[in-house]
Design brief:
Length: about 400
C-alpha cells in the first residue's frame, strides 16, 4: 500500500515535535515552559462560551449554508466598519473552518499546476503546503532584518516571474510578528494587480497589532480586490473552535461556495452561533484589553532576552512572536532548541519550521502565555546562555 507523493512530501512541524518532547519531559516529572505554540492562553471570551452553551441547548444544530450563517457574515462585515472603518458588503464575507480552510479554499480556487505563488521566507509553513497541494510552485523569497523579515515592493518586482499568479503575505507575520506598512502593501498589491495576479493577504494577527492612536488598517483600505484571510483563533482566542473567515471579491463568492460545499459542507454550526457574541461592545473591549496585555508581555520578553545576551533584530509590532538570533551562542537553531528544552525545560521553535533562509540562525518564541510563566522561562533562558 502506498501513500500519495503529496502526503509523503509534507514536512512535519518542528513546533509540534518540540511540543511532544516537552510532554515527554513533563511525564517524567520535569517542569516545562511552553513558548513554542502560537496559541493565546486567554481562551474564548466568557460571553462566547455562554453563547455556545445556549446554542447547544436550544438548537438541533443543522448545517448552515457553505458560506456561513448570514447573521455572522453580517456581524463580520459590520466589524470591518467599527474596527477598520471599511464598508463591506456582507455577501463578500465567507465564514470558514479557521483561516486554514480559508487558505485551502483560496488555493483550490486560484491555483493551476505550474502556477507560482510568491511568498517571503520566513513565513507560515502551511502556506507552502496549501500551494503545493494544488500543483502550484512556491517562490520563497529570502527576506531579512533590513526588510523587517517581510516582502517589499523591490523584492516582489525582483523575484516576479512569468508564471507568478499570486502574492501571499501575512502581516503581522508568523514567525516574526513584524508588519508591512500600508504604503508598502499598497505598492506590492498594485504591482501584482497590474500583472493580473491575485493578492492573498493574511490578516489573522491584524487586530493584535500596534495601532494606537488610529485603527489597524486592513489591506482592503488600499486594495479592495485583495483576498483577505482572517480568523477567530487569535484576536478572539478561539483556536480550537475552528472558525475563521475570508473576504473575497464579489465574483469569487460563487466559486468559493461550490468549493466549500464539496470540501467540507459548512463550518461548525455551534461555533458560528457562539461567535456572534464576539461582536458585542463588551467582548470587543475585553479583546482589546487582551491585546494591551500582550504588549506588556512583549516588553517583558524583549527585556529578558536582552539580559540573556540574545539579539532580536526586529522587534515585533503585532501578533505574539519574537524571532531571536541565537548565532551568538555558537549553536544552530535546532541544537539551541534541543539543548534548551532538555537542560531547562523551555520549549521554543527553530527557524527551520518557517523557511530556509538563515533558518539555522533564528528561533521563534511565542509570548502568548502568562507574565509569570514568561518570567520563569526567561530566567531559565538567561541561565542557559550564561553557561555558554
Ligand atoms: C499566519 C497564520 N495564518 C493562518 C493560521 C491558521 O489559523 P487557524 O487557526 O485560523 O486555522 C495561523 C496559525 O497559527 C497563522 O499563524
Amino acid at each position: 500500500m502506498q501513500y500519495s507523493n503529496r502526503a509523503n512530501a509534507i514536512a512535519p512541524f518542528f513546533a509540534m515535535a518540540f511540543g511532544e518532547k516537552a510532554t515527554a519531559l513533563e511525564s517524567q516529572g520535569r517542569s516545562v515552559i511552553r513558548l513554542n505554540i502560537g496559541e493565546p492562553d486567554f481562551g474564548a471570551p466568557p460571553a462566547v462560551q455562554q453563547a455556545m452553551q445556549q446554542a447547544v441547548a436550544n438548537n438541533n444544530l443543522p448545517y448552515t449554508g457553505a458560506l456561513g450563517d448570514r447573521r455572522l457574515r453580517e456581524a463580520i462585515a459590520e466589524f470591518y466598519y467599527t474596527q477598520h472603518q471599511i464598508r463591506l458588503n456582507p455577501n463578500r464575507v465567507v465564514v470558514t473552518a479557521g483561516a486554514s480552510a480559508a487558505l485551502l479554499l483560496t488555493c483550490a480556487a486560484l491555483i493551476n499546476p505550474g502556477d507560482e505563488v510568491l511568498m517571503g521566507d520566513p513565513s507560515y509553513p502551511c502556506n507552502r503546503q496549501f500551494v503545493k497541494t494544488f500543483g502550484g510552485d512556491v517562490n520563497l523569497v529570502p527576506t531579512g532584518a533590513s526588510s523587517q523579515f517581510q516582502l517589499n515592493s523591490k523584492l516582489v518586482s525582483d523575484n516576479w516571474n512569468a508564471n507568478t499568479k499570486a502574492l501571499m503575505i501575512a502581516t503581522p507575520s508568523n514567525p516574526t510578528g513584524t508588519a508591512v506598512t500600508l504604503d508598502e502593501l499598497d505598492k506590492m498589491c498594485a504591482f501584482a494587480k497590474a500583472r493580473n495576479a491575485w493578492r492573498i493577504i493574511d490578516e489573522i494577527y491584524l487586530d493584535l497589532s500596534d495601532h494606537a492612536p488610529g485603527p489597524a488598517k486592513s489591506v482592503l483600505a488600499v486594495d479592495d480586490g485583495a483576498i483577505v484571510i482572517n480568523s477567530f483563533s487569535k484576536f478572539f482566542g478561539m483556536t480550537g473552535w475552528r472558525l475563521g473567515w475570508m473576504v473575497v471579491p464579489e465574483d469569487m463568492v460563487e466559486v468559493i461556495e461550490r468549493l466549500a460545499q464539496n470540501l467540507y459542507i459548512c463550518p461548525s454550526t455551534p461555533a458560528q452561533l457562539a461567535a456572534l457574541a464576539c461582536f458585542t461592545p463588551d467582548t470587543l473591549a475585553l479583546c482589546e484589553a487582551r491585546r494591551q496585555s500582550l504588549l506588556t508581555r512583549r516588553n517583558i520578553v524583549l527585556a529578558g532576552l536582552e539580559k540573556a545576551g540574545l539579539c532580536v533584530p526586529v522587534a515585533p509590532s503585532g501578533a505574539f512572536y519574537v524571532y531571536i538570533d541565537v548565532s551568538s551562542t555558537g549553536l544552530t537553531a535546532m541544537t539551541f532548541c534541543e539543548q534548551l528544552l532538555s537542560e531547562t525545560g523551555v520549549a521554543l521553535t527553530p527557524g527551520n519550521d518557517f523557511g530556509n533562509s538563515d533558518a539555522d540562525r533564528y528561533v521563534r518564541l511565542s509570548y502568548a502565555t502568562s507574565e509569570q510563566i514568561l518570567h520563569e522561562g526567561l530566567k531559565r533562558i538567561q541561565a542557559f546562555t550564561a553557561a555558554r
